[in-house]
Amino acid sequence: MLRSHRRLLCASAASLLVLGIAACGGTTKDNSSDSGTAAQAGASADPNAKLKEGLKIAYLPKQLNNPYSDVEVSGGKEAVGELKGEYKLVGPNDASASSQVSYINTLIQQQQDVIVIAANDPNAVCPSLNQARQAGINVVAFDSDAAKECRDVFINQATTQGIGESLVKMASEMAGGEGEIAILSATPNATNQNAWIEVMKTELAKPENAKLKLVKTVYGNDDDQKSFQEAQGLLQSYPNLKVIVSPTTVGIAAAARYVSGSNYKGKVGITGLGLPNQMREYVKDGTVKKFALWNPADIGYLAGYAGAALASGQITGKEGEKFTAGKLKDYTVGADGEIVLGPPTEFTAANIDQFNF
Amino acid sequence: MSELAGDTKRDLKRRLAGWDSIIILLTVAVLVVASLSISNFGTGRNFTFLVLDLMPIMLVALPMTFIIVTGEIDLSVASTLGLASSIMGYLWNQGLSIESIIPICIVAGALLGALNGFLVTGLGLPSLAVTIGTLALYRGLAFVVLGDSAVADFPFNYTGWVTGTLGGGVIPNVLILIVPLAVIFGVILHATPFGRSLYAIGANAQAAHFSGIRVARTKFWLYVVSGAVAGLVGVLWTLRYSSARADNGAGLELAVVAAVLLGGVSIFGGKGSLPGVLAGVVLLAALQNALRLQDVSGQALNIVTGALLVLSVLLPNIASSIRSNWQRRKLRRAAAV
């Protein structure tokens, strides 16, 4: 009887293995060709098409209850209101790679016209976004891009190059042109974060920044507590650190809160991308001299109009197509379906009170 | 053999007279009501989405049920899944073929499970403490293996198979894995002496030991199987989301334990049935899916799930205490006469 136990267990383990092994030849990285892209609708753009009313436009940010995406989608709500469409906001509680997929599936079932998504992981959302497009839904990525082959257009808040340069410029100003700097990022896979960090590294390699040394990049996962702890850890591990650069609003606020309440205040500079409302007190108390951002509400707003332009046939996502985005005026689709919002704004004690978001 | 079948029937009858049958009925009710009242719930496409959503929890819940029935727990499953996903990404980058990577990931999962099993049975440590430890350990190793990067360029014939349906219909391909595995685990638990020995271990490990059941060895192999299944789910997860990442599946262990407990398995061991667990998994997934279609927020989903879980633990207890009260009163009345 005991022997039969073992045989059962071995048999079940073996059958598991057999199930796992597919009965075909070896597919490796080098010989597999990825053919999983959705067929593009071969429609041609008609710039004079009338914007449709009553479009169902759903926003799917990285996660709900994140102050930054709340502002982004508020702009979207405004745009959908102007377009006389139906605005909807859905999203997961955590910014993990897989959590958005179920929401995309739900939106497909609800037969939305447009999905506006900030992807937590460019590839994890790909299969379901393509299912959405096959079901006739237009997909606009904003803030953090999905893989190119699974969306129609991408609303880029600024060029990656522009942001990276501006981050290094501000860090260099804070550090007085020399010393150790560190980066406090969001999640290790955030497309936008990683792209900016790459540009920063290229910028730091230039001779004029030779005296600046990037000692470490840490990840706070866009979680306030973890970002706070990571900032604390950085300052403990690198006593000579001059500047923490955080290209994420959660990170910069947590780092500023930590430094403003510690004896590092005034010794360590904090800069990066932040929300004026969250950073106001740290700018006023001198912890933060300067940080930058574009207006997030404008991103959501532009995404709404881009979605409506797609759904109405004014654009299809090809380079050179033009459309008008309400109060933001005219835009042109760039290479790879990118639509760039414009240059970032720098905030200092002098101008911060002009902004409320 | 016929005696065994009779035993099993009685066994199942007894088991299904309790919470398990209530949860199965509740699940059917939720499915029926949702199909009738929510316009997009009962469609073929939604069925596919639902199955894909519950796949990881369903598969991991099978060995988890065995382990919890014996009175132990395995909280490291989600981290094992993540580590398997990391290994998969790493080996794929190294240029190995996917056909050899998949069994390697499953074996890796089995080895990780064997470590749990050894710590619990070989050293006699409490499984809660051990698997909380390996939860952190395996997740940490996952980040060591793959770092912060994600690997995404898996072949489409595999990723497409996992997210696809049989002949483009409504039956998801992954059911080909889920159904046989569920049947195998169900038969082992409810129709073999081995399955019955698990209940004996859960009810009283010492008594089981003295009656000749090899308690330690049994538990050890359960952890190995649990790890292997977690490894397999790591592979499926990676292919479904075409993304091998170290943080894949984070937090899944609690969703699995929640589904198992909701399905009527006692956390103290010795009680529960696999049909109940399957219903528990389907119930949680169907509720989430239905509420999402109704635009209920994620926070509210958590509240519903949590409340349901508390109720599932509370109700059987209330019922049994009412019953024992009533019996005591009856005895007292009999004594007074």
From TrEMBL, chain A:
Coiled coil: none annotated. One of its GO terms (molecular function) is carbohydrate binding. PROSITE patterns: PROKAR_LIPOPROTEIN (PS51257). Residues 1-23 form the signal peptide. Residues 57-314 form the Periplasmic binding protein domain. This is Rhamnose transport system substrate-binding protein. NCBIfam families: RhaS. InterPro entries: Bact_Solute-Bind_Prot2, Peripla_BP_I, RhaS, SBP_2_dom. Pfam families: Peripla_BP_4. GO terms for cellular component: outer membrane-bounded periplasmic space. GO terms for biological process: rhamnose transmembrane transport. Keywords: Signal. It is found in: Cell envelope. It comes from Actinoplanes digitatis.
UniProtKB/TrEMBL annotation, chain B:
Coiled coil: none annotated. GO terms for molecular function: transmembrane transporter activity. The keyword Transmembrane applies. The chain crosses the membrane at residues 21-41, 47-68, 98-120, 127-146, 166-189, 220-239, 251-269, 276-294, 300-322. It is found in: Cell membrane. One of its GO terms (cellular component) is plasma membrane. Keywords: Cell inner membrane, Cell membrane, Membrane, Transmembrane, Transmembrane helix, Transport. The keyword Cell inner membrane applies. It comes from the Bacteria. Its main location: membrane. InterPro entries: ABC_transp_permease. It is a multi-pass membrane protein. This is Autoinducer 2 import system permease protein LsrD. It comes from Actinoplanes digitatis.
